[in-house]
Amino acid sequence: MRIASLYRYPVKGLSPEPVTSAILEEGAYFPGDRLFAIENGPSGFDPTEPMHQPKIKYLMLMRNEVLATLRTRFDDATGDLVIAGAGGEMLRASTTSPEGRERITGFFEGFMPGALRGTPRLLQAPEGYRFTDSRSGFVSIINLASVADLEARIGLPIDPLRFRGNIMVEGLDAWTELDLVGRELETASGVRLQVLKRIERCAATNVDPQTGARDLQLPKALLTAFGHVDCGIYCRILKGGRLAEGEQFDIEDVPAALGIS
Known about the structure:
The protein contains three helices and 15 strands. With about 260 residues, it is α+β, with helices and mostly antiparallel strands. An eight-stranded mixed beta sheet has the order 2-1-10-9-13-12-11-15. Strand 1 and strand 2 (about 15-20) form a beta hairpin. The two termini are about 25 Å apart.
């Protein structure tokens, strides 16, 4: 089970950023992932008491496929969010200043006014919280062999980035990752993950991450072929360390009494 590539998604619903390595911390999330969300009208999110919110309260690909036409990048050093389109850079604004956040709000007001239920607002996750779809979405893994198998079954190409995973792996038989729930994954360097659950897929995967076209029906294809809508797994970080492209995971059994939820 080899790591083919790594990705983070600094802003929920916006484009991925490939990384060659990442420093994972025990009990934390994939670094730099889902740090921000764009509130689509008042969501009720309180950063002083962060509670998991349904993704429908934010701008997201399931309903706002036009987001896929944007290319975004977050600069960790400066806190700047850079948004580009087909014609080049459209916005560069600070996420750390009121003026910068207002510019980001203004960009989405102008870019997609018909999709807004109210004033959009940039939300930043407080320490220990992330804007993931699942409460236990600490780290997500996508098996490239499973994507290739689904691709063969529908007879159309599928970009693995439709599944918005953090870790793309190869060398594992198609769909066998779904049977890893309750087991642990460990690298030679000592990074250790616990597989928590399968990832249920929604209509966001129907959107081409390059063009924004809603051109496939992947949850329906999964249900037709396999009787479920699962593709990928969520993991918890049991032991941190550096994770890099090309590293391998060993798959280990653990006592059944641990209890996974």
